[in-house]
Design brief:
The protein has 2 helices and 11 strands; from the N terminus they run E-E-E-E-E-E-E-E-E-H-E-H-E. It is mainly β. The termini are far apart.
């Protein structure tokens, strides 16, 4: 929703909880799994918009829905059945299982990379962007994580005519 001033944006998302609408207003994190983008607004201002890598859809998909930040820490090891990795910045989404964090072992973020080299459900984020998020996030910030239909690209219109080349 535009506030009427050039360059300003007042983000507002209307959600339903138990079929009752509620608003996410000026401060929230949006995880767009389809486009592999994470955006963080604080007090209506854009703090970060970054490419990410979310969970491998056929193995460890990233959760969708409305969650909240409630814990953050630095310099920790994440352990699982087939990984043991160090992260500098961790923001918890679901306990110690799913979170937003840097991923120094990755050189690619965004695009369709997650389809064949996705995470174990966490939102892998470039270190510089994750530091900015970490420095600005507090407990209780809404995190909206979602998929959506990608629009089908329109085919360019062709009139079926052959253009004459003038000599």
């Amino acid at each position: 929703m535009s506030s009427g001033c050039a360059g300003e944006l007042t983000p507002e998302i209307v959600c339903l909880r138990n079929d009752e609408p509620f608003d996410i207003k000026d401060t929230y994190i949006e995880v767009d799994i389809t486009n592999q983008k994470m955006t963080f607004y604080k007090d209506g201002d854009l703090v970060v918009s970054t490419d990410i890598v979310t969970g491998l859809p056929d193995g460890h998909p990233t959760i969708t829905g409305l969650y909240y930040t409630y814990y953050k820490t630095t310099d920790i090891w994440l352990d699982g059945p087939d990984y043991h990795v160090f992260v500098k910045y961790w923001v918890s989404v679901v306990g110690d299982i799913i979170g937003l964090h840097d991923a120094s072992w990755r050189s690619n973020f965004g695009g369709d990379y997650y389809l064949y080299a996705g995470s174990h459900g966490c939102v892998n984020t470039p270190e510089e962007a994750m530091k900015t998020i970490y420095d600005n996030v507090t407990d209780g910030i809404p995190i909206l994580s979602y998929h959506h239909e990608k629009p089908v690209p329109e085919e360019p219109e062709t009139a079926g005519e052959t253009q004459a080349i003038l000599e």
